[in-house]
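re the bet — no i am not wrong, look at it urself. input seq straight from the record:
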Amino acid sequence: MAAVWSILCISGGHGSCAFADGPVKKPLAVEDLYRFDAPESLTLAPDGARAVYVRRWIDPATRRERFALWLVEGSRDKVKPLEKGEPDGRSPAISPDGKWIAFLSTRPRPKGWKETPKAGPGADAAVNIWLLPITGGEALPLAGPDQPFGRVYHDGFFGRLAFSPDGGQLAFVADDGIDPRSKQEIAADIEIVRPDQGEGLTGYGPAQLWVAHLDKQPQEFAARRIDRLTKDAICYGDPNWSPDGKYLAVHANKTKDREAARYSINQNFDIWLIDVKTRAFRQLTTGPGPEVSPRFAPDGKTLACLSVPRKGSHRDIFNLALVALDGGAAKTRIVFDHHAGNKIGRRPAPVFPLPDDCWEGDRQLYYTADTGLSSAMVRVNLVDGTAHIVHAKAEDSTGPLKSGAQRLGRRLNLTPRGNTFLDDRQVASSEAIVWKNDGLAIEGLLTTPPAAVARPPYKLVLYPHGGPHSRTSLEFDFLVQALAAHGYAVLQPNFRGSAGYGQQFVDADRNDMGGGDMRDCLAGIEHLVKRKLVDPRKQFVFGSSYGGFMTCWLVAQTKQFRAAVAQNAVTDMHMMWALSDIPSWTRWEFAGQPWEVADKMRERSPLTHVAKVQTPTLILHSRDDRRVPLPLGRAFHRALEARNVPTQMVIYPDEGHGIRQPQHREDVLRRMLAWFATHE
């Protein structure tokens, strides 16, 4: 469970010097939030000479986030929008012949046609599929007036647009857009509690698999024939075509133990092979935990996927698995087992998902990995099992692409600069720091204010990440930069339980939430105090999700913070199990159901210890959060009020687990800064 605050800054290296040769740079301001404008989701055309990307920015007039498709050709500075007026466009996929772009959009369908059903509160925007010539022009809806499907999934786990190898078909995942209630239930205006897709997908029906047969010369819409390959209550995701175009591989959990999969991949997903013509299913994997992200080798004889040998934490360590498809029973081989007691850091583990173009021939494969504060591309030789981190260089935009390293380099070469306004801002510098606690080496990121703003010892904000099995990375984080611009140093510790440091480190937090991980955070602060970098009398704490838990837990266990801000915080483990869309989170971390480990859950709930809180604490919560629902914030706020602890609660409507709307993000920042300043 992680907050959504980081904005990837692709504009190059921004130093922290406020007085370099040339004009004096301005401090970063909260209102600069509305100036972010950067590329994302860059997709290479087959010839590698051009690419399509999504321009993501905030409209200054409406202060709403916008997305539009742009084309880059030859070099990163040769860019142009693909549609006049830049209507909404997201998640581009390019056909194998390089002529068509399939993409998702919230734009309305033609007047009088069946419209895309709306999504629920706090959910992903309801999108549909459109096709556009790569040379630009008029976009066509995929389906005609009476399209057979409803909302298209674009959540990153289920949703994917996939062209068949010959480009004649497009596989995608969508619900049927039908109200699940009976006529009697609709007439009575009631709602029956039924399993649904959870956080970010409120209102969506089961993720079903569809294949559109694209017209060779489309007129008003792109496909007159759209086949539905599945019709059940199961969710299917991440479709991948076999090289001969006869089969689709998907991941799906067909057991009765099912729950939301958004940011939580710990259920018994298996890889299934579907014959596109006959719609016959074949189960390829049978592991006890998740097998996900199927990717066919070029020869079609092997399929790669990610695998976990247990139903463990919501973000466990993946193994790379190979499934042999030799006509008989499918055989699965783990390339390297990160769960077999191997030493931490022996080899970077893959993260979800496998890249679409992960294969290089039939004997080498690429995946991305978390490596501490950084990320890396890893190349694996499947013959001898050796693995190496790839250090790609920007490639020129001519010639065929023969390797994954070349593709990565070409992407670097074609990715336009973004957020260029930061060239004129004082950007705070960050450094990786390491300290020892309980015999463990703990890594964190320390961001310090520009010299023109403040000098050590700094007032400090401790900013623990969510999860707990997430991590702090080197990505540009506007919230951190805004705090630094107001004179705060920010410490972001990758405490035990964090991803990127191996399986043993992830498991070190189990049955000990608020124990060793809290000590890791406090030891990091002590390390900075000893270095005389931070003022021991001016310490503050902010966190969201599990970071919100840590915030509430710290103010209940210590008195060293002047003020705290908790966003979408886990405050009570029994309520978390009962109300969250992922009860498996609590069950795994405490090794039992609430009635089995009631004392343990109660003891590690911040609400249990609220009588000890004296720290002024601001509570922020999304109204429509399904992962950490609103009552958890309300309960802690009410308890603080009852004890006359300085507090306030702010609720953000139409927001899920991450507060994303720009005007709400601005409000969070301004309230946090004001709260800290009031209690300095």
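see?? The longest strand covers residues 534-544. told u. also DSSP finds eleven helices and 34 strands in the chain. so pay up
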